[in-house]
Design goal:
Elements lengths: L2 E4 L4 E6 L6 E6 L6 E4 L8 E5 L4 E6 L4 E6 L6 E5 L6 E8 L2 E7 L5 E7 L7 E7 L32 E5 L5 E5 L3 E4 L4 E4 L16 E6 L7 E6 L5 E2 L5 E2 L10 E4 L16 E4 L4 E2 L5 E2 L8 E5 L6 E5 L3 E2 L5 E2 L17 E4 L5 E4 L4 E2 L5 E2 L9 E3 L8 E3 L4 E2 L5 E2 L9 E5 L2 E5 L4 E2 L5 E2 L10 E5 L4 E5 L4 E2 L5 E2 L11 E5 L2 E5 L4 E2 L5 E2 L9 E5 L12 E3 L2 E6 L4 E2 L5 E2 L7 H4 L5 E4 L7 E4 L3 E2 L5 E2 L10 E5 L2 E5 L4 E2 L5 E2 L3 H50 L7 H5 L2 H4 L19 H7 L18 H8 L1
InterPro entries: 6-blade_b-propeller_TolB-like, EGF, LDLR_classB_rpt
Keywords: Disulfide bond, EGF-like domain, Membrane, Repeat, Signal, Transmembrane, Transmembrane helix
Protein name: EGF-like domain-containing protein
Amino acid sequence: MSLMISQRKFHLFWSDIGGAGPKIESSDLSGSSRKILVNRNLILPISLSIDIPNRRLYWSDPKTSSIESINFDGGDRRLVKTFAFDESKPAYLDVFEDYVYYSTFEYQHRSSVRKISKFGNSSSTILLRDLPRHSDLILIHESKHKTSISSVCSNYASPSPKNSLCLPIDERTSTFVCSHGYKYNGEKFTCEENRNFSPACKMPCLNGGTCAVWNNNEKKSGNHESCVDCKNGFTGRYCQIDLCHNFCLNSGICKIYNETTKVGKNSGFDDAVFCNCPPQYDGPRCQRYKCTDYCKHGSCHVDRADFLPRCMCDDGYFGERCEQLSHESSSDPCWERCYNNGTCFVTPYGLPVCQCPPGFDGMRCQQCTALDCANGAVCLGDLGPNREICRCKMGFEGPLCEIDLCKDYCHHGICNRVGHSLKCDCPARFSGPRCSIDRCDGLCQNNGVCIEQPEAKNVACVCKRSFYGVFCEKRYTCDDYCQNNATCVEFNDTLTCKCPAGTSGDRCENLNCLPCRNGARCFKIDPTFSPQTHLNAIRLGDFFIQCRCPLGLTGQFCDRYDDANNHYCSSHLRCLNGLCHKPAGSSPRCLCRAGWRGLVCNLPTCYNYCLNDGYCLAINQIAICKCRGGYSGNRCERFDGNSTQIKATASRSRDNLSRPLLIVLLPLFVLLLLGGFIFYATFNKWRRLDIQFRHNRMHDDQILQNPSFLSGSEDDLSAFEGESTNFTNPLYDNVYNDTVVNTTNNEEHELLPNRDQTRNGHN
């Protein structure tokens, strides 16, 4: 536990890791006005520190590996730093200016001192290393610890009563706490001796209570201690229960009746406290919304003038609570149709229409031009000049009905408008009219975890190991925790069980059979049987369990040969799927056939085990076949004859036939393709050679007018005149027949012009 005192704010802050669970609380200096600030997501808050200027409280929790902070009233919870699993965990801390200084838990009880920004999101700085042990951390500075603080107690004109201590409540008021054995008399301003006090009374009483010893002879022998004369508003064995805590709902303010009302162990809520409720709520605890189920056939709102509920009736109803049905409404469509003195008339189609006076609008004249009523509210302007108001529908309020009461109405649930009232649909964890009561709050003890059970609309406690009970309120001991002869080990307040063979579970509560091998089977044996039957057996509760070994094997799990009683293959060892072999000078052994293994060859392997293309799987040292379509059996040895499977088998057969054909035809196809390519290449080569020796005849003007033919024309061609046979080559005959002069006919052939003639012509 850690305790801090705020000198300036006159408050106590402390952490508590026992009782109903870890929590951080506060009170005034007298112990009254006690309040729980944090009770969730805590495990071991071992150190507290206060930041007076900013009114914040910081704490460290090495179990959650975090440093966090809250306001003095318990709000605005913030995470300063979360430490990784490989970082040193925070131990004790103190706050000064903008930093949190903390010591750490490290290996071999070593420690270090570090600092980190109190605003978070930064790495730590190491200030001191390798301290011999971790201890509390206190920062001393004149601005942090004031010694000249004045209080209302130091300003009293008269001294404090004898045997008393003055404690300031705030800057203006104080109270007195009497010494042990005395009680305070407010009328006489004295601490009077408590006649019921006994020096043997050691009970710590809070909130002004006095310890007294009661004689209880009528009930049982001996005396017992109790706290009496608790301060108003407190009760309980130690006067520790604040009757105002979570008593008033819906922001109601809890009050004590008067100073003369003495709240003791026989007092209840009704005669001690009461609630000042907001205008919209009433009831002993402000639990009822005034409009709930008030208007029978209309919407309700709470009038802001007298805080009474008012109804706006639906069509066809009237009365203070819209409880009366108008008979005229069934025959007259204009009955109470128009608001604000609007004039109603019926169209030829039988529909009512409102004609609104100046300043009003809407289908029923329900809207004022001067007010913009929201959320379907009706503006009422017939109350007088400039007195328009908005009449809100159920679930809305405000001058313009702009406030949705459903917003934040259900603290942890879903708000629904059912008829003319608000209803909360609460999850399993929360209850109450507005889902404000956390059913898990303080429910589970000893760090048990409260969980929701949505199906059952309930909550339950999941206990940590070593605890049990509905609220985890009971603790196991080693005498009754482990079951089935398990060994119990206690370490750091945690019980652990070492389970014997054949059991499992946190408490060894599950009874299993032994993991027998090599085909042996596990049996339960009655303890009344002869001791010989208990050989290699294990006792579990009221019976024994044992592995029955095949012939030739022994051991608790039948995992070795029985060499002591194994001499001959014929009678001492049975090899199920193999041959018994006895080497010279040793005991018989099994030689397994292919597909089998084990000391007696009883365990199948996957080697050639599955038939008909079955797929073999080794599961738990057993070969299991996954058969293809059409086959079944342990080794896929049976053909089922199913038509679909037959088709699949036929398809596989066709596939098996097509494979060799494909192997033969593929090379032939390649050879044919290669031969075709060679033939095509050879054919193209000869075709190109043939084209080179072809000559196409050209027209005369293309040949004879070429200047190249004119060069060297001085040669005498007379020898060739008239002798066309001089060209014996048929190809040349075809080309040059037209150039030969035929003297026997009169046909003229164009020849190349004579150079002399050409020259003479030019001359």
